[in-house]
Amino acid sequence: MVLLDCLLQLRSLRSLLASNGNSLREAVLLRLGRLQGRKFAQIAHHLWNICFYTASTVFLLLYQMLLIRPEVVRESGKYFPQYNNAIFATACDPAKLEIITLVLVSFKVFGTVAKLSNGDYSEAFSNVLYGTLLMCCLLMRLENYCILLNLYIAVYSAFEEFFLLFACHVNRKRSIELTCFVVLKFCTWSYLFLNVLPFEFLIPTLYARSDLFTLKLCFWLWYCSCIWNSPLLKLVYHQIYHTHPKDCAGGDSAIQCILSSDWRSYRHFRNLEHAYYELKLHQSREQMHSTRSGESVSMTAFQTIKCVVSLKRKLKRLRENREQMAKHQ
């Protein structure tokens, strides 16, 4: 239903723009203003990622089943196989592997640029490490390693984008549904990065032959970056450092903090709010200073008048005393 709703929104936007070509700018502003509450840009981004990861999953699964698995089974059946683990099988068609790797790396490059534009530097660095790992697999012709790893990552990323897409349509006050999304995200991440990758890739890579040292280094760096960006560490970071609701895009909710991704806009509006309050504070201080200076001027004038009046009284008394002394004489 959510995907159908998003597609209907895209279709209505296209019909709205095509119906009135002279007022294109007004139509765009009107439509985007209506979709501001639903975060139209994030929905389009999540839909694009879901389509790409779903297509990648189907293609890589068929590629692995139809082209790689028969070669792996044939090689494993030999008395002296070329490799001890099937994931280190070399490429049977380097040209196809090169095309697949370049497409995946290009997608990661665009994702890195998007993360950098949003101010998410840790995720961008993780994408750079993953692209480096794929290029390392291409140079070493590790076809099965590259295809299986990308297959697992594509399945996980598709689920993650689904969760984020549904979270965009859920009201922030309905914490039960958001909690379910976060629990599902925890489960999928834990299954992949704590169960599948360590036993199928991490441990075999550590015990691989010495000429695969570059592969070991790239995989270790990328795996550590994934642990650093994990939902578990985000939860711990929120509990330790986000002590005030203004410190986090999710406010005082750890669930919304984990699901929040638009940190750049949040920081921008938070800085604007801080600047506004600082301006109001400066104006109030200036007003208090002007009030105090006005009061000090009034007090000075009052003291001056008081001194003049007292001086006149003294002069009057002196004059009266002189007159009385003159009469007595």
Characterise the protein shown here.
This protein is mostly helical and 329 residues long. The chain contains eleven helices and no strands. It has a domain at 39-75 and 86-264. Helices cover 81% and strands 0% of the residues. α3 (40-76) packs antiparallel against α6 (143-169) and α7 runs antiparallel to α8.
Secondary-structure topology with pairs:
Blueprint: H1 2-19, H2 24-34, H3 40-76, H4 94-117, H5 121-139, H6 143-169, H7 175-206, H8 213-228, H9 231-241, H10 254-259, H11 263-328
Helix pairs in contact: 1-2, 3-6, 4-5, 5-8, 6-7, 7-8
Look at the helices and sheets and give the structural class. mainly alpha
Number of strands: 0
Strand content is under 5%
Largest sheet report: none
Mean pLDDT across residues: 75
Distance between the termini: 118 Å
The helix content, as a percent range, equals over 70%
> Low-confidence parts, pLDDT < 50 over ≥5 residues?
20-35
**Number of helices, counting only DSSP H or I runs of 4 residues or more:** 11
Rg, alpha carbons: 36 Å
Order of helices and strands, N to C? HHHHHHHHHHH
- Oligomeric state of the chains present here: single chain
Sum up the overall morphology in one term. Answer: rod-shaped
Main attributes of the structure:
mainly alpha; 329 residues; transmembrane helix; membrane; single chain; 11 helices; transmembrane; AGAP000330-PA-like protein
Gist of the model:
The chain is an all-alpha fold and about 325 residues long. It has 11 helices and no strands. It has helices at about 1-20, 25-35, 40-75, 95-115, 120-140, 145-170, 175-205, 215-230, 230-240, 255-260, 265-329.
